[in-house]
Design a protein that fits this description.
It is a single chain. The protein is mostly beta strands and 153 residues long. The chain is 10% helix and 40% strand. Strands 5-12-7-10 form a four-stranded antiparallel β-sheet, with no helix packed on it. β8 and β9 form a beta hairpin. The longest helix is centred in the N-terminal third of the chain and has 15 residues, at 7-21.
Length: 153
């Protein structure tokens, strides 16, 4: 699978995230909405959480999935990687994501990020509240968006 740069795909996914957010600011005429429609940006980035540029797969059978990921208090995702681009919006709780390099970042309710692609990482719940994540995946029909792997250390 070859990856390509696509800003239009980012804009489309951003619009989907914006519709989920609820609270908003007035949209500009350039966005193509009526003046009464409001938009609250929650993610605008050109890089993943690992610092790599956003790239989209050039595949024959593209598929977009929207998922709710729930992790109980004290839980973790387990080490894994995403072979395709995915985007996360934290609906509830807080999660600490550790990358294969050992870098750790905490994401809390209301925050959004572009997942690392082809880089091992693990997510652990921070605190006593379950984590709920809206995850949007731009992948390929019939292929996994997440692959279990061994811890890097």
């Amino acid at each position: 699978m070859k990856l390509i740069d696509t800003s239009a795909a980012v804009a489309g996914l951003a619009a989907l995230f914006l519709s989920v957010a609820g609270v908003s600011i007035p949209a500009s005429a350039e966005e193509g909405y009526k003046p009464t429609v409001s938009v609250k940006p929650i993610l605008k980035t050109t890089k993943t959480t690992s610092g790599d540029p956003i790239r989209y797969p050039d595949i024959d059978d593209p598929e977009v999935q929207s998922l709710i990921v729930e992790i109980p208090p004290g839980g973790e995702t387990g080490w894994h990687y995403h072979p395709v681009p995915a985007y996360a919006y934290i609906l509830a709780g807080a999660i600490e994501v550790e990358s294969e390099t050992g870098e750790k970042r905490v994401f809390k309710a209301g925050e959004s990020f572009a997942e690392m692609v082809n880089r091992k990482h693990d997510g652990r719940v921070v605190g006593d509240e379950p984590v709920r994540i809206l995850m949007i995946v731009t992948g390929e029909a019939g292929k996994p968006f997440s692959v279990k792997t061994e811890a890097p250390h």
